[in-house]
Structures
1.
Amino acid sequence: MDRFAKYLLTTLICIVALGQFVQVVTRYILQVPVMGLEETMLYPTLWLYILGAVNASRENTHIRANVLEIFLKTDRQHTILAIVGEVISLVVGLWLLSWAWDFTRYAWRVWKESPTLYIPTFYSDVALVIGLALMMLYTAINMYGHIKDLRRRAVR
């Protein structure tokens, strides 16, 4: 799974970079803008953004501002703080996931299309619900790991 994520994210970032390069060359050097390039770049850009957040959840490398860690002395206290943080993340994330699911159902029902190329926007809209579901899965896995770590320390 790690290998697939690495190659997918690399492919998406290359597509986005290439699209931006073409945009700059055609628009500013050749003075001929490519119609619809912004629309087509929306899809890999959005998926890259969402899957990048999923990757941060998978690796447990999200940016955190754990100010309370300064005042905590023991590893047990740090683990308990991590569990509390994961629980809060799960509650907020599941709430957002329910909104994303409602939005996905709406996007499926309405089936909007992009204005120039008529590409269905559902394919970018669905990224949000898939991304949030995966982030909640990895958050739950991380929380389970912290709980397991806390139990292991309690046994000692």
2.
Amino acid sequence: MNKKMGYRWRLRDLMADQQMFQTSNLVPLLAERGITLSREQVYRLVTQPPQRLSMDVLVALCDILGCSPNDLIEPEVVNQQIRKTVGAESDSLSIEPRRSVIRRPGRK
């Protein structure tokens, strides 16, 4: 059984919990912690899940937001293959397309 893992980047949610609604609010707070990022870099950091993230930035974000890395990064299964055994009933719902018939009043 294979499953592909991904994650949900929750920086925007955690910022909103702290009443921080502008990405530019992070620029000076990061700078206070020795992290120099442009407004554009911070915007991308907030709006897109990062593929790479330095530990220094992660620690600074956790300090600013009063959270742990687990609060920022929520692992999730993106694609999961399910093994099926012969004769076993499926636990999931199976929806198959069905042809519709429209009947007009007075006609058969």
3.
Amino acid sequence: MARKQYPLRIDPAIWEAVQRWADDEMRSANGQAEWILRDALKRAGRLPKKEPSSKDVPKGEEG
């Protein structure tokens, strides 16, 4: 999956807290930030629905 690169301006104390949380979860800080954003979007009902890929379609039901 392609990733969008984006320079993030954030309070250093916030990023430090994200880094500590990431360390606890054995993730990178970037991975943790993405997880936090994805979770917030899901809770708000704003997470985009992913398009089903060919591997998600049961055999025999291809379009």
